[in-house]
Amino acid sequence: MKKIAVIFGTRPDTIKLASVILELKKEKKYFKVITIATAQHRQMLDQVLDIFKLVPDYDLNIMLPKQTLVTITQNTIKKLDDVIVKEHPDLVIVQGDTTTTFVGSLVAFYHQIPVGHVEAGLRTNDKANPFPEEINRRLTSAITDLHFAPTETAKRALLKENISRNSIFVTGNTVIDALNIAIKKNYKFTVPLLNEIILQKKKIILLTMHRRENWGKPMKGACKAIKRLALLYPDFNFVFPVHLNPVVGDVVHGTLDNMKNVFLIAPLDYSDFVNFMSKTYLIITDSGGVQEEGPHFGVPILVLRKVTERPEAVKYGTVKLVGLDEETIFKTAKRLIEDKTAYKKMASAVNPYGDGLSSKRTVQIIKNYFNISKTKVEEFIPHK
Q1: Is 312 annotated as catalytic?
Q2: Sign of CA dihedral 220, 223, 225, 227
Q3: Which of 13, 23, 27, 133 is catalytic?
Q4: Is 243 labeled as catalytic in the residue annotation?
Q5: 111 counts as catalytic
Q6: Grouped pLDDT means (10 residues each) for the chain, 384 residues
Q7: Domains of the chain (ranges, CATH numbers)
């Protein structure tokens, strides 16, 4: 039996690892799964654990008030090291691009333990965008032994960095596996206001902004564009779960407060968020995960970023990069609202991210790695 340690610390990485953990736990004959939560983000992490009914074997609880990237790194290294020394797993699995991801892979490397990286190979090739995620990804890739690339684009990015072709596997993105677990047909939202908004049967535009590189003037410009759209289209409801960071909240509330069809609400838990997303007409966001989730529902997405490490949806047409320029955001959204042909083209585009089988592929690859079996794993290819 092989001992597999799965390390996570934030809402996004836990969402994308949940289905992998559940799939690994089905293989009780072969694997003992050790789940380790750094709790880099406390509240949002706990919500996801509840949804997927996961109880970490170790909860490092590192989150501190006003924590910095340095304090997160310091605390994670020490506490993770203690667990890895105690458990000494045969494989460490990390996901994505958080500080937990990089530090988890680094501690494993220090103990000469192989690393599997879920969602490997995402790149913008701009170390400041997104910050610090782009560097976290690159550093993790330099350590990783099994690269679970979500797309062919990600695989090519890894090959460009001289990573061995034999260590890269295109699995699709586990975010789709998670959606298949979380989406319910007759879902009732835990936030009563959301049920009320759905009952109004107006078209809904969902908004999210939080990226560090967008703080200040860029975020202000995006909020001004949203205000203009809300005034121009009073028959649309604009729903904005506002990030808890006051740097974000001050700008959003300062621009969008007291508008009848703009609902500024607290951040939603994962289940509420994705089920609400499935009922929206358009999404305007700077989130990476939302760029992957939206195409699953056929919802066009305008991305408030200059570059994206997820270019596939741009290529296939369900996502459009609009940056942070107020006029560009306003005009692009206006066209999608008024031009049915343009809207339909984006809404009917191919989802390039997954087919719900990514976790099964990932676990089979791990079994092959340990010579438990030698079943050939077909790479994920988007449907044409």
Answers
A1: no
A2: negative
A3: 133
A4: yes
A5: no
A6: 96 94 97 94 80 94 85 94 98 96 98 98 91 95 98 96 98 96 93 96 95 84 96 98 87 94 94 96 92 92 90 90 95 97 93 93 98 94 76
A7: 2-173+354-369 (3.40.50.2000), 192-347 (3.40.50.2000)
